[in-house]
Write a structure and sequence with these properties.
This protein is an alpha+beta fold. It has two domains: 132 residues, Fructose-1,6-Bisphosphatase, subunit A, domain 1 (Fructose-1,6-Bisphosphatase, Chain A, domain 1); 107 residues, D-Maltodextrin-Binding Protein, domain 2 (3-Layer(aba) Sandwich). Helix content is 33%, strand content 30%. It has seven helices and 14 strands. The strands form three sheets. Strands 3-4-5-6-7-8-9 form a seven-stranded mixed sheet, with helices on both faces. Strand 1 and strand 2 form a beta hairpin. The longest helix is centred in the N-terminal third of the chain and has 17 residues. The relative contact order is 0.14. The chain binds D-MYO-inositol-1-phosphate and calcium ion (CA). D-MYO-inositol-1-phosphate binds next to strand 4, helix 3 and strand 12.
């Protein structure tokens, strides 16, 4: 199952890598800073079409669709390009994120960064992998490690709270980073390069695949109240190794 998803996601990555003049390929703009390009739509259309051939019983939820779904047992949750602003400016840090869910549990997840050729993948109960090699979260404390954060420019209601928390995290940790792709941030925690990633108001397609990859790598994926993430709505989330998580929640 996972290999078919990986092959299809890799094919979709070719659309990302073939893109040119991305900034003039913007087709929609919701608010001032929320962009969609023709490539986001093309990657999503390709994934929906190709995955439906292998999983005819599944329904599809994607960042670039209306998402009027009828709650079938098997559902894909897809972000065709996570990091669209990076993509538009050729910052070269954007990912394709594909999660397969069964009755609201993620059973398979793939996050692909075509620029670095990194494929992060996991199946429930079978561990997490980077390009086929097993990965685990780090053993570092947050106080000895790196913290990643995100905050969406098109949700200004989250800005002050996020930067207030970030200030505390910056003082507490070794340093902070922002990649501009939440899916990639989660996977960098999963493979032990960073210790914590946090962001308010993330959508299911930003985090569904990454959540399984992180958990299978031994990490914790919870909302700010310490509860399981609900993939039917936006969530305030923290992804961390277990030791760093305990330190992080003292700063919340
Ligand atoms: C965004 C990225 C970004 C995060 C935003 C997301 P998009 O996704 O993941 O890192 O801070 O909240 O919306 O719009 O580029 O697919
Ligand atoms: Ca996204």
């Amino acid at each position: 199952m996972i290999n078919r998803i990986i092959e299809t996601v890799k094919e979709a990555g070719k659309i990302v890598l073939s893109a040119h003049n991305q900034e003039s390929a913007v087709t929609a703009k919701e608010g001032k800073k929320n962009f969609v390009t023709k490539y986001d739509v093309a990657v999503q259309d390709f994934l929906f079409k190709e995955l439906a051939k292998d999983f005819p019983e599944a329904e599809f939820v994607g960042e670039e669709s209306e998402n009027d779904f009828e709650s079938k047992a098997l559902r894909f949750i897809i972000d065709p390009i996570d990091g669209t602003t990076n993509f538009m400016q050729d910052f070269r840090c954007s990912c394709i994120s594909v999660a397969l869910c069964k009755e609201n549990n993620v059973i398979a997840g793939v996050v692909y960064n075509p620029y670095t050729n990194e494929i992060f993948s996991a199946e429930k109960g079978k561990g997490a992998y980077l390009n086929g090699a097993p990965i685990t979260v780090s053993e570092r404390l947050l106080s000895d490690g790196l913290a990643l954060f995100g905050t969406s420019p098109y949700h200004p209601e989250n800005t002050d709270a996020t930067f207030a928390l970030l200030r505390k995290v910056f003082d507490f940790s070794r340093d902070i980073r922002r990649s501009g792709s939440a899916a990639y941030d989660i996977c960098t925690v999963a493979c032990g390069r960073c210790e914590v990633f946090f962001e308010k108001g993330l959508q299911p397609w930003d985090i569904a695949a990454g959540t399984l990859i992180l958990e299978e790598a031994g990490g914790k994926a919870l909302n700010y109240d310490g509860e399981e993430i609900d993939f039917s709505k936006p969530n305030d989330v923290v992804f961390a190794n277990p030791k760093a998580y305990e330190e992080f929640i003292t700063l919340l």
